[in-house]
Specification:
137 residues; 8 strands; globular
Length: 137
């Protein structure tokens, strides 16, 4: 029998999974519906955040317009009853980006924050082999 904390954790993961599904489907209104009114998106971390309805819509529309395919890895929940972390890959016709997303999902089941981590060394041309650039092999 699942406890309420486990059910809540699974719901948070479902919201994040749905974000990736809708974004990959090009469903801009569907993606936007997953956000809380005061949600912020920092992608990549270190750049100015996208805050407000117009900024979020522009961000999501640009992501869809790039025709990028986001492939999430295993979603991992935190014990703080808010966050889900997920490694994912962004694939376009020109490049592949390895990233880590930190999603905050509020009690209402909407995304209140996304922080996407990816650095300059996490990008490679689409036709380049994948390798670990953070260590010497």
């Amino acid at each position: 029998m699942e406890t309420e904390p486990v059910k809540a954790e699974l719901r948070r993961k479902q919201v994040v999974d749905e974000y990736f599904r809708r974004l990959n489907a090009g469903d801009v209104p569907g993606v936007l519906a997953l956000f809380a009114d005061d949600a912020r998106i920092e992608d990549p971390v270190g750049h100015p955040a996208h805050e407000g309805d117009t900024a979020r819509e522009t961000y999501v529309s640009e992501q869809v317009g790039r025709r990028a395919r986001l492939t999430p890895g295993t979603l991992v929940a935190s014990h703080d009853e808010e966050q889900v972390a997920v490694p994912y890959t962004v694939s376009t016709t020109a490049e592949v980006i390895d990233a880590l997303g930190l999603f905050r999902v509020g009690p209402a089941g909407t995304i209140t924050e996304i922080r996407a981590f990816s650095g300059r060394t996490d990008r490679r041309p689409t036709d380049a082999p994948q390798h670990r650039k953070d260590r010497d092999d």
